[in-house]
TrEMBL record:
The keyword Lipid biosynthesis applies. InterPro entries: DAGAT. The keyword Lipid biosynthesis applies. Its main location: endoplasmic reticulum. This is Acyltransferase. Pfam families: DAGAT. It comes from the Eukaryota. Belongs to the diacylglycerol acyltransferase family. PANTHER family: ACYL-COA WAX ALCOHOL ACYLTRANSFERASE 1, DIACYLGLYCEROL O-ACYLTRANSFERASE.
């Protein structure tokens, strides 16, 4: 895909706000906040930690989303940087609950973040009556301050109790799961359409237990915004990446994009279009204890629906007519 025009300074600052906000909270604000315990302002962090203890289960009980945070204007600058948009192919009825499979993971999941964690692309207008929850690693919700930031955007834990809660309390809830997970991020390079899905069946079992509809989605352009340095299995760097994942739950990926000046290399992603295509929901029966055969059946139907969704839209969004989805 060709490069788009060089982004303006507002888009650059907005884009950097996302990853830097996590780093700032984790490495700067948290140490400063904890250090207040040894100052006359000690009641402030003390009360917060008491409140956090009492509030410990909130991330697994629907969270605490904020319409104000989801509508920050900074998200529109991120949207316009690439740009990012969402394409609806079918309506989603508020009378049902949904598990949305999000593919591919990419490196930083820009499409899922902008489309489902903010209102920058108009999710609520596109799917009225549907409340989206993007699921992420559970340990993020054990980190002070970061947990508040994530919950405000409607992010939930990918733990079974959190998903069960959302799918059993009312209707119109949509849980987005990046099925390929961090393993898929490690193989995210341009011009690839390989998904880790063949043995990922837990989301199908959960959908059957709750009678939730499965919604296939594919984000075109997600793997095109960064180049990644891949390391051979057995190399020291690959072993370090595996070790890093065991400690933190995700891989340490080495990647690069464009710099602050046209034609330069740097930390910014390439400003290339990202389009999340939301497919037709697949109805599932509610079965409290689904058999493996039943799980396999609907998993196969889901993969077939995802393949058809990809084939229908691939040439429109930069893929060749001969390109196919590969399932690992």
């Amino acid at each position: 895909m060709p490069y788009s025009k060089q982004p303006n300074k507002f888009q650059i600052l907005s884009l950097l706000q996302w990853p830097l906000s996590y780093l700032a909270i984790f490495w700067i604000l948290q140490p400063l906040f904890i250090s207040l315990l040894f100052t006359p302002l000690w009641p402030l962090p003390a009360f917060y930690f008491v409140w956090m203890f009492l509030d410990w289960k909130t991330p697994e009980q629907g969270g605490r989303r904020s319409a104000w945070v989801r509508n920050w204007c900074v998200w529109t600058h991120i949207r316009d940087y690439f740009p990012i948009r969402i394409l609806k192919t079918e309506n989603l009825s508020p009378e049902h609950n949904y598990i949305m499979g999000i593919h591919p993971h990419g490196l930083l999941t820009f499409g899922a973040f902008c489309n489902f964690c903010t209102e920058a692309t108009g999710f609520s207008r596109t799917f009225p009556g549907i409340t989206p929850h993007l699921a992420t690693l559970s340990w993020f919700f054990k980190v002070p301050l970061i947990r508040e930031y994530l919950m405000a955007k409607g992010v939930c834990s990918v733990s079974q109790p959190a998903i069960d809660y959302l799918l059993s309390h009312g209707t119109g809830n949509l849980v987005g799961i990046v099925v390929g997970g961090v393993g898929e991020a490690l193989q995210s390079v341009p011009n690839t359409t390989t998904l880790i899905l063949q043995k990922r069946k837990g989301f199908v079992r959960t959908a059957l237990q709750h009678g939730a509809y499965l919604v296939p989605t594919f984000t075109f352009g997600e793997t095109e915004v960064y180049e990644q340095v891949l390391f051979h299995k057995g190399s020291r760097m690959y072993k370090f990446q595996a070790f890093f994942r065991r400690i933190f739950g995700f891989y340490f990926c080495v990647f690069y994009g464009q710099g602050f000046h046209q034609g330069s290399t740097g930390i910014l992603p390439y400003s290339r279009p990202i389009v999340t295509v939301v497919g037709e929901p697949l109805p599932l029966p509610q079965i409290e204890k689904p058999s493996q055969e039943m799980v396999d059946k609907y998993h196969a139907l889901y993969m077939d629906a995802l393949s058809k969704l990809f084939d229908k839209h691939k040439t429109q969004y930069g893929c060749s007519d001969s390109q196919k989805l590969l399932f690992m």
